[in-house]
Design brief:
single chain, mainly beta, Immunoglobulin-like, 13-stranded mixed beta sheet, 5-stranded antiparallel beta sheet, 2 helices, globular
Length: 311
């Protein structure tokens, strides 16, 4: 996921404990978007802005596979390696299939109010969150993934923050005044991709009206260079205005521009991304960041979608 480096770091340091890297994005990459046989293999991994070179696997015991008939099926991981996770799924009936991690709480951050300002609480350094496994979101939000090899930053990752300095608008756990008002913020991730056997269908594209979702207007398996990709970003079924959307092209390490396109959603949560050449792309977006020291929102969300653009 790309936001200009300074903006990213300011946002993420306001949402995560100190000592965590801020540079990994999760993705699901199928071996084919146009499936010809009876199955497809997907790679689940994280990458450090080098798409799609994996540098950490997703500890995914099950993805949620939505069939062309709208049935949700858990698909277990075949192999989990250090740098990537392999998932094999059957593709039998013609139509479009969605593969998703589901909406998943990757970390919970505590904020406290000190002298009228909300500060996030820096926890003592510990093991990476991916080593402990994630958990389903509270309040009945759907989830299909038991953990990612991510750290506790606002983006996936682990390690030490650049320079090792304490983030702004934060306070060490040991320094929190007794009785200070506190709030917890859940960071929820969604990672998805679509594949199609024969002709594209629309049933698997349906949204649930719960949590953070991307509703395709253009079919994800029918994106063409000269037409672009239109979609709507929703939270609990309501449009998300002003959401920043960033798009990366596979092999971007060799490109003059690391970011293929950027845009923001309009008042109706709608946006359209345009392309100048075919390829495999990763689209990322996230819920709006809160103002520094403002009262924290109960949840923040990140989303990524892998898809193919053809001529």
């Amino acid at each position: 996921m790309h936001i200009p480096a300074v903006a990213w770091r300011a946002l993420l340091l306001a949402l995560c404990p100190t000592g965590m890297a801020l540079a990994r994005t999760p993705y699901l990459l199928p071996t084919a978007f146009d499936v010809r046989g009876g199955g497809v293999t997907l790679v689940g991994a994280t990458t450090e802005d080098d798409y799609f070179t994996p540098d950490g696997g997703l500890a995914v015991p099950a993805l949620v596979e939505t069939t062309p008939a709208g049935q949700a099926v858990d698909v277990k991981a075949t192999t989990t390696l250090k740098d990537l996770t392999v998932i094999e799924a059957g593709i039998t009936a013609p139509g479009t299939y969605r593969f998703s991690t589901g909406q998943y709480v990757m970390r919970t951050t505590t904020f406290v109010n000190v002298d009228g300002k909300w500060l996030f609480v820096r926890q003592p350094r510990g093991p990476r969150l991916g080593d402990r496994g994630g958990r389903p979101p509270e309040s009945g939000k759907p989830g299909g993934m038991a953990g990612m090899s991510h750290g506790a930053g606002g983006r996936p990752g682990g390690g030490t923050a650049a320079g090792g300095d304490s983030p702004p608008n934060s306070i060490a756990q040991a320094d929190v005044p007794a009785g200070a008002p506190s709030k917890s913020v859940e960071s929820i991730s969604v990672v998805e991709t679509y594949v199609t056997k024969s002709a594209p269908t629309d049933t698997a594209l349906s949204t649930t009206g719960r949590g953070f979702e991307l509703k395709p207007v253009t079919h994800p398996n029918a994106v063409y260079v000269d037409q672009g990709f239109a979609f709507q970003v929703l939270v609990d079924g309501q449009p998300v205005a002003g959401a920043l959307v960033s798009v990366y092209r596979a092999g971007n390490i060799y490109d003059d521009r690391r970011v293929a396109a950027e845009t923001k959603t309009d008042a109706k949560g709608m946006a359209k991304v345009r392309f100048d050449r075919p390829g495999v792309y990763l689209l990322t977006t996230h819920s709006a960041a809160q103002a520094p020291s403002a009262e924290p929102m109960p949840r923040n969300y990140t989303y990524s979608l892998t898809f193919e653009v053809t001529r």
